[in-house]
Design a protein that fits this description.
NAD(P)-bd_dom_sf, SDR family oxidoreductase, Rossmann fold, Sc_DH/Rdtase_CS, 274 residues, alpha/beta, 7 strands
Length: 274
């Protein structure tokens, strides 16, 4: 009998080179989900710019991506350090992507922060404001810049990293959840306004095993994953595979959607500790 709680093991290889000739920008990509998305896009033939706040960590990530995902081809990986909340940093990342690769047809808004937990009546409004600025306003800022630099004339695909916490209340991460709900609505508005040349979708993960989400399964991974029909937490690769599909031509009639990648947790009617 198959042990459904075990690690899913190696996944099927990505479609061969279906993104060849395209350039992507992935934010918050020095580790975790963003890093996995960058690796997925590189594996499918794209050239990729990665951004994150810490230059040293970003440089290490770029080296690893070039070595492992790009087959040693350093010309297809560009690292541009910067804070997604900064207007100047966003502009630099977009500008350098187009200068280096000659295009920008894929944008993945992965950067997200969650500096506040618990009862909203005790929430620091400065932290809430920063959460929305980084998780929502910065994402729109990147889309605006990508539109002006390339996509407005040539088309493209955008994927925003939302969360199941933006679909259903958790009581644990309410400000973060509210910001992701706003990002989901932003995704729908952008899809309507930017079609048909630009497709805009979102993905909504549940708890994924990353450093960012550690607090959500600190009480015990087995205990948390027991609430999921799939009996395990997500991996960055689970999310990356979905993003790779959504930016590809195989998803050419999909826009304005928020696709759940949640191990079935929403089907149970509860988010548990997600």
């Amino acid at each position: 009998m198959t042990d459904v709680t075990a690690d899913p093991g190696p996944r099927p290889a990505s479609p061969s080179a279906d993104l060849a000739g395209r350039a992507a920008l992935v934010t918050g990509a020095s580790r975790g989900i963003g890093f996995a998305i960058a690796a997925e896009l590189l594996g499918r033939g794209a050239s990729v710019t990665i951004t994150a706040r810490k230059p040293d960590e970003l440089a290490v990530a770029a080296d690893k991506l070039a070595s492992d995902a790009a087959g040693g081809d350093t010309s297809r990986v560009l690292a541009v350090p910067g804070n997604a909340g900064s207007d100047d940093a966003r502009e630099e990342a977009v500008t350098k992507t187009v200068e280096r690769f000659g295009s920008l047809g894929i944008l993945v808004n992965n950067t997200g922060i969650n500096p506040t937990y618990g009862f909203l009546m005790d929430a620091d409004l400065g932290a809430v404001r920063k959460t929305f600025d980084t998780n929502v306003v910065a994402a729109l800022g990147f889309v605006q810049l990508a539109y002006r630099a390339w996509m407005g004339e040539h088309g493209g695909a955008v994927v925003n990293l939302a969360s199941v916490a933006g679909i259903r209340s958790t009581g644990v991460i309410p400000a973060y959840g509210a910001s992701k709900a706003a990002l989901i609505r932003l995704t729908e508005e952008l899809a309507w306004q930017l079609g048909p040349k630009i497709r805009v979708n979102a993905v909504a993960p549940a708890v994924v095993k990353t450093k960012f989400a550690t607090a959500l399964y600190a009480e015990g991974e087995d205990k948390v994953s027991a609430a999921y029909p799939m009996k395990r937490l997500g991996t960055p690769e689970d999310v990356a595979a979905l993003v790779g599909f959504l930016v590809s031509d195989a998803a050419s009639w999909i826009t304005g959607e928020t696709v759940r990648v949640d191990g079935g947790i929403l089907s149970t009617g509860s988010l548990g500790s997600a």
